[in-house]
Every structure is written in structure tokens, then in C-alpha cells.
Amino acid sequence: MIVLGRLKAGTARESHRVVHVFALAPELLHLPVVTARCGAPLPSGDLQWLPRFAGMPCESCVLAD
Fold first, then answer.
1. Left, alpha or beta for 10 (phi > 0: left; psi -120 to 50: alpha)?
2. CA distances in angstroms from 14 to 23, 43, 56, 63, listed in the order given
3. Between the CA of residue 38 and those of 19, 23, 44, what are the distances in Å?
4. What's the whole-model pTM score?
5. Closest listed residue to residue 30, CA positions, set 9, 5, 51
6. Which tens digit of pLDDT belongs to each residue from 39-55?
7. Which of 21, 29, 45, 65 is the most buried (most CB within 10 A)?
């Protein structure tokens, strides 16, 4: 399953709140740390999960194989 998420407001500078792409099963969304397609490990508690694409994309996630 492909899931989109970005850091919640207040957890990072606005320029770092890009939308990352995650290939995760629903039960893995609650792991302490999830890894985006770009390789960035992000704390799941600091992520805002998005129902659809909105915001600036992480270019590395988009281009990842």
C-alpha cells in the first residue's frame, strides 16, 4: 500500500515538511519509526498522514525505484 505523509506542523521548519512516499502495510503505520522511499527514517508520531497528495513532494521519494 502506498501512503503519503509529512512532518506535522511544529516538528520541523516549514521547508522540511515535504510529502514523503511510504510503501507500508496499514499495520506498519504505528511503528515508532517508518522509512520513506527516499530512505529517510521518520518518527511515525511526528507524521501527518495524508488522504491525498497535497504539498511539496520529496523529490527523492518521487524518483526512487
1. left
2. 24, 17, 10, 22
3. 11, 11, 16
4. 0.88
5. 5
6. 999 999 999 999 988 88
7. 21
